[in-house]
């Protein structure tokens, strides 16, 4: 379950909502994340690699949140 991600697809689909200003969009979305930055495709890829590894052999049927703490902060209000 990815949170706010900074990927080419996200940038292309949301740029108009921020007046075409990609830097401003990135700055606003980064500020929304407790870590101070959005995730990227590598964050999801690393989770996939972990799940494909032997270390995750007993994990199944789980919804894993990869959002830099966004959900934790949102649920604390």
SSE arrangement:
Layout: H1 8-14, H2 22-31, H3 41-52, H4 70-74
Describe it.
This protein is mainly α. It has one domain (8-74): Helicase, Ruva Protein, domain 3 (Orthogonal Bundle). It has 4 helices and no strands. It has helices at 8-14, 22-31, 41-52, 70-74.
Give a quick precis of the structure:
The protein has helices at 8-14, 22-31, 41-52, 70-74. With 77 residues, the protein is mainly alpha-helical. It has a single domain, classed as Helicase, Ruva Protein, domain 3.
What distinguishing features does this structure have?
Helicase, Ruva Protein, domain 3, 44% helix, 0% strand, 77 residues, mainly alpha, single chain
**Low-confidence spans:** none
How does CATH name the architecture?
Answer: Orthogonal Bundle
Major sheet, described briefly?
none
**N-to-C series of helices and strands:** HHHH
Mean pLDDT over the full residue set: 92
Tally of DSSP β-strands: 0
And the CATH topology?
A: Helicase, Ruva Protein, domain 3
Number of helices: 4
| 3D shape | elongated
């Amino acid at each position: 379950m990815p949170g706010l991600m900074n990927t080419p697809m996200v940038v292309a689909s949301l740029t108009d909502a921020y007046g075409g200003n990609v830097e401003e969009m990135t700055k606003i979305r980064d500020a929304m994340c407790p870590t101070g930055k959005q995730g990227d495709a590598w964050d999801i890829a690393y989770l996939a690699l972990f799940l494909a590894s032997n270390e995750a052999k007993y994990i199944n049927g789980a919804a894993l949140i990869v959002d830099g703490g966004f959900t934790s902060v949102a649920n604390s209000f």
